[in-house]
Amino acid sequence: MATMKSLIGLINKIQRACTVLGDHGGEGMSLWEALPTVAVVGGQSSGKSSVLESVVGRDFLPRGSGIVTRRPLVLQLHKTEEGTTEYAEFLHAPKKKFADFAAVRKEIEDETDRITGKSKQISNIPIQLSIYSPNVVNLTLIDLPGLTKVAVDGQPESIVGDIENMVRSYVEKPNCIILAISPANQDIATSDAIKLAREVDPTGERTFGVATKLDIMDKGTDCLDVLEGRSYRLQHPWVGIVNRSQADINKRVDMIAARRKEREYFETSPEYGHLASRMGSEYLAKLLSQHLETVIRQKIPSIVALINKSIDEINAELDRIGRPIAVDSGAQLYTILELCRAFDRVFKEHLDGGRPGGDRIYGVFDHQLPAALKKLPFDRHLSTKNVQKVVSEADGYQPHLIAPEQGYRRLIDGSISYFKGPAEATVDAVHFVLKELVRKSISETEELKRFPTLASDIAAAANEALERFRDESRKTVLRLVDMESSYLTVEFFRKLHLEPEKEKPNPRNAPQPNADLYSDNHFRKIGSNVSAYINMVCDTLRNSLPKAVVYCQVREAKRSLLNFFYAQVGRKEKEKLGAMLDEDPQLMDRRATLAKRLELYKQARDDIDAVAWK
User: Fold this and answer.
1) What is the widest separation between alpha-carbon atoms in the chain?
2) Would you say domain 329-499+517-583 falls under CATH 3.40.50.920?
3) What is the mean pLDDT of each successive set of 10 residues along the chain, which is 614 residues long?
4) Does domain 34-319 have CATH number 3.10.310.50?
5) Which H/E stretch holds residue 38?
6) What pTM, to 2 d.p., does this model score?
């Protein structure tokens, strides 16, 4: 079986590590909460501090009136070999050893003031103190602020409830052993500590009762009913303590001498002599240490189960946020390319329909482009008045004889030029959709979230590529429009009857001048013919423009969005590659914290396995 020293010492070590990592809260039960501890509870002036000093064998706690303990003090006692020097260490000052226990008291006061100020406020942030001495047993105690019934000057009215809530937050945990301190010269039934212990531990299986100040009880009275369990029974025996008197404190009587004086008191007491072997601070320390060791052994399976569960959860989170990357340039380049491919997969899923967004491109072709084509001002351009104006200007001084071919060409060219607006708008609309899909793909690529610099570089490179694709697409669609102007479909016009509409014979009328040879119907016919041709061109462009846009923009985005970026990355030096993989500082801190916690849990599991079953 494991020795008491190794087992309790191991728990002390784990508790210290938990405190360093802040692992004493959060969802579910933390490892800190799973570890058995002893919480010292008592009202103000109950002798709580004197009991702790008696257990330690040193005078080291702040004293005074009112609330002296204003922060929880986690006191870990480590028994050392006989003849070794006593010293203390604070977790907030790990490299400093305190051999002077008056300096320990001063450090507790200063560290308390650092959080609470010099007011009488309290804080639930614990102070962690370890004492190494041959005169102690292996034990962990938590000294909590004394319970009070009224607020004193300088304290808020809520102080009574605040202290009780703080104390309750410790003692209500199922793995907390309660050391309930009650002065023997007061009625135990009214003891603040016993009252609270009864509420959180009604069966009394976690509570140890301590009666202090036995030596100053009224003459003719004693505490036997309490110490022998008749007055208030607990599952564990009551222990009587004789504190140092104020005179002894003022004279700075040595704590070892005070222990000897306490033993003599019980051994020579007519009331308590028969209980002497089970009274006093030394017995209390051994009793608590033995019980703590027993509880720890009972809790080992659940502690190990919690550790294993925590290890699995930490590994899962590390996998999610990413493991640390290697530092050599080859590994860094490989990591960058893998991250680029991960982004590229998400981007293609958006385009191909695996993720939403790609359908917006079809919406541009199916709704936005047809709507823009319908809004083109052909009615105004091919109005009878404008047709007559254009045809007349094209004829010049010599009116056309049969068909106004130059007029036709000018009307067609002017109409076709209107298609350039919708063509360019289609290119820009698809470009906007692709840019938005790049943005969404960056945010949805889980692997990139830990590398904001690389994510920004990929986004910039992708957008630059999209700009190049847009420029090429714009040139292509404008060429398609210009092609329609550069060569007209002759067969279309050969099928048209271009002869002027014949008017009814009017032999009585004299021949009309040449300017009146063509009526409005003639120009309406020309406008109608041009409109029919433009409708044919519109149908052609409605089909060919999407093909050009997809070929130049969507297809290229799928095939070569990051090709130029790949070439650039391949030429970068190691330092620049490392800069691209610069992570979010908060993520790096989170990973470092998780790594430390994982190391703590694994070491705790190994240590428990090494000592628990010896």
Assistant:
1) 160
2) no
3) 58 69 52 81 85 86 75 88 91 88 91 82 87 87 86 74 90 91 86 92 92 87 90 90 79 81 92 92 91 86 87 88 74 87 94 88 94 91 85 70 76 92 96 96 89 91 96 96 89 63 48 54 85 92 96 95 88 75 79 84 82 62
4) no
5) strand 37-42
6) 0.62
